[in-house]
Every structure is written in C-alpha cells, then in structure tokens.
Amino acid sequence: MLERPVSKAGWTRVAFGDVVRKVNDRVDPWDSGLERYVAGEHMDTDDLRIRRWGQIGDDYLGPAFHMRFKPGHVLYGSRRTYLRKVALADFEGITANTTFVLETKDPARLMPELLPLLMQTEAFHSYSIKHSKGSVNPYINFTDLEAFEFLLPPIQEQARQLSLMLAFDDAIIAAESSREAALVVWRAMSKEEFSSRAGSGSRLADHYSIASGQVDPKADKFRDLPLVGPNHIESVTGIFLGTETAQEQSAISGKYLFEPGSLLYSKIRPELRKAMLPNFRGLCSADIYPLVSGPTIVPEYLLDLVLSDAFSAFAISCSMRTGMPKMNREQLEQFLFDLPTVEHQMSYVAAATGVKKIVGECAARSTRLFVMKKIILNRVSSDVV
After folding, report:
1. DSSP state of 12
2. Residue 347 in this model has a pLDDT that exceeds 90
3. Per-residue confidence (pLDDT) for residue 75, from 0 to 100
4. What angle do CA 264, 364, 383 make, to 5 degrees?
5. Which residues of 208-231 are buried (b: 16+ CB within 10 A; e: fewer)?
6. Which whole number is the average pLDDT over 280-297?
7. How far is it, in rounded angstroms, from Cα 198 to Cα 195?
8. Phi/psi zone of residue 113: left (φ > 0), alpha (ψ -120 to 50 degrees), beta?
9. What counts of helices (H) and strands (E) characterise the chain?
10. First CA to last CA across the chain, in angstroms?
C-alpha cells in the first residue's frame, strides 16, 4: 500500500503489512534442539512478558506446534483476539501456528521495540476484534491484520515514545518486585504463626459461626448491595478486587447477606486461597461461606489463618474429588487449631497488617502506573493510529 502524506510533518499513513511481516520459520520441535514452547494459556491479557511456558520434552505437543520464534519477536494470539494476548519473546522457542510470530520489516522505519506497544493500543485491538471471523472461537487471518492502517511517526518520535513507555515499564516492574518481596515476608510470618498450631487443639468451628438463610437479591432492600463472588477476591492476598451490585449483575437466585467484618471464604477450588474481610454490608454467592468471628478469635487473625499454608493444605485434602474441588461445611468444621489468646492474636495481626499494607500499596501503585501508561499510549494512538 502506498503511503499517503498527512498534515503532521514527517508522519505517514501506512498499513500494518507495509512495516510488519509474519515470520514463518517452521521446524520439527523434536529435532530443533529447542526446550521451551509457548501456548495461548502461557500468555496473559495486557501483559507483554512471558512468565510461563511448557517443556518440549515433557509435555505433549499437538501437530500445530511448529513455528519457531526468537528473542525480540512479537507473539500474537490470533484466536479470541478480545483476550488481547500480545507478548514479547525474550528466549527462543516454539509456538502453534495460531499464534502469529511477528517482526518489523525495516527497523529504521518502525522500531522493533515499538511494535508490541502499537499492538497494545485500543485502535489495534478494536480493529482485530471487528475483523475476526467465527462466533464460537473467533479468529483473525494475518492478511486481515495487514490492512490495519495507522500514522507512523518519524524514527526520532518513535524513540521518544519508546523511552516514555519503557520508563513506565521499569516503574511497574519495580512496584511488582516490591510487592513480591513483601508477600514473601508475610508468607514467612504466616507459616511461623500457623503451621505449628494446626492439627491439634479445639475445632476452629467453635470460634466462629456461619451465616445461614438466603435472601432474595431482587428485593428492594438488597438489590443495590454489592454482590461478591470468588472472582472478586484476589488469590492468596485477600485483596478485594471490586464488584457490582446484585441488580447490576442481574442476580436472581438466593444469596447470603453479610455484615461488615464478616469473613468471606470461597469454598470452591480451595487451592486458590480466596478469602477477604469486607468493611461493607453486602451479598455473597452460595460459593462463599460468610464466617462471623466469635469473641475468642480476632477477625483479621481468622483471615490470615484461612489463607495460610496449613489451612490450605487441609482444605485441599478435603476437597479432592472429581469435578470441581469444593470444601463443604462439615469438612470445614473438622479443622483443628491450637488457638492462642486474643492478646497474642492482636500482636500477630499488628505485625502482619504492616507488611500487608505494603503489599496493597505496591499493588495499587502498579495498577495506577499501568492505567497511566495505557492512557498515554492510547492518547498517542489517537494521533498515531
């Protein structure tokens, strides 16, 4: 496609296929000498980093896995493009032919490092989703992507944009690293506090009650309350991810009513360790137990206990069954724990709360930086794309 000059000096309108090529480096995975492969499940939405992969020698690979990628190549999930899976490879490996391996045609024209950022813009995702084919498992062909048009800035402007985006990435990585370090400290504190006390003493169920009786989420006095499900709770940390009201979620079946300070414990897939201590009144799904602490146990202590390695190991052992693992009420009541005094609990909670506050602050900082980066990237793309 011919470039068409635009009013912005030095910027030109190009098609994606003018500056980007699809790499078709087909290899036999077993004779390639490569060790790692990347499938769709190894790529995360809106995250350029590849954090997981499979081992070619250990796992079964279907016949579609024969496309080699190298460091610097961009991987793009062409199936269900609404999942926004774009990743920048930092190692050599193999992927399936449904994952496009892309590179710039001329680095002097489009900087390779800018390509994955271009593919993270709302304009690119909207185009890809709009031009996908099929309804059950929609996909896009590379020939369709080639027609995507955008305004290409001069190489100096590309370098400036890249520098800004990399600064955001460095700040996000630093915040995430600090969060992980704080999590390690908190998990160590949790292990020391709870592991030696589990399996003996009294039933933990003697120190809390479970809210019973469901309410109608369609009723006037309940429909505007927040409705919490397991998907609204972050694994391991107990951080509340936010939710909508019962009415906004079109809830129709009975829900449990909980008061502020009740502990919400997800009984589905206990290996995910989903529990939280809300400071608001609301409803929760039938997949959650609302636990009300008695006078002998501090609510924050109970939260850390059910998130601990010791309790999670017990919960997982109870829920092992075919289908969806689940912890029922009778199993929950069997957990034994040598509960310390309230004074000891409060001392632990005070120390743990300080560390968990750092975890939350780092997570919030990382989220804010990511949102700012996205706003700036799309603001640039409103001119560029």
Report:
1. E
2. yes
3. 97
4. 130
5. bebbeeeeebeeeebbebbbbbbe
6. 94
7. 6
8. alpha
9. 9, 21
10. 16
CB atoms within 10 A of CB 263: 25
pLDDT of 5 higher than 80: no
Residue 126 pLDDT exceeds 70 = yes
pLDDT, mean over the chain: 89
385: confidence class by pLDDT, cuts 50, 70, 90: very low
- Measured in whole angstroms, how far is the alpha carbon of residue 23 from the centre of its chain? 29
Per-residue confidence (pLDDT) for residue 10, from 0 to 100? 77
Instruction: Say how many residues make up the chain.
Output: 385
Nearest to 190 by CA among 269, 92, 273: 273
**Rounded mean pLDDT of 344-365?**
93
What are the CA-CA distances from residue 245 to residues 215, 226, 228, 345, 362 (Å)?
14, 4, 9, 34, 27
Please name every residue paired with 95 in a beta bridge, in sequence order, or none if there are none: 38, 67
For position 7, what pLDDT does the model report?
45
Distance CA 314, CA 335 (A): 7
Whether 330 shows a pLDDT value over 80: the answer reads yes
CA distance 130 to 40: 20
Does the pLDDT at position 268 exceed 50? yes
Cβ-in-10-Å burial (0-12, 13-18, 19+) of 110 comes to buried
Query: Which ranges of the chain would DSSP assign to H, the alpha helix?
Result: 16-19, 115-118, 122-130, 142-145, 155-194, 299-307, 309-319, 329-332, 342-384
Q: Which long-range contacts (CB under 8 A, 24 or more apart) does 164-173 make?
A: 164/376, 165/117, 165/373, 165/376, 165/377, 166/113, 168/369, 168/370, 168/372, 168/373, 168/376, 169/373, 171/369, 172/366, 172/369, 172/370, 172/373
Can you tell me the mean pLDDT for 319-331?
Answer: 77
Task: Tell me the pLDDT tens digit for each residue of 251-265.
Answer: 999 999 999 999 999
Burial of residue 382, with CB atoms counted within 10 A of its CB: 0-12 exposed, 13-18 middle, 19 or more buried: exposed
Token digits of residue 251: 């809830």
Run of H or E residues at 215: strand 214-215
CA 293 to chain centroid, in Å, comes to 31
- CB within 8 Å of 321: residues ≥ 6 apart: none
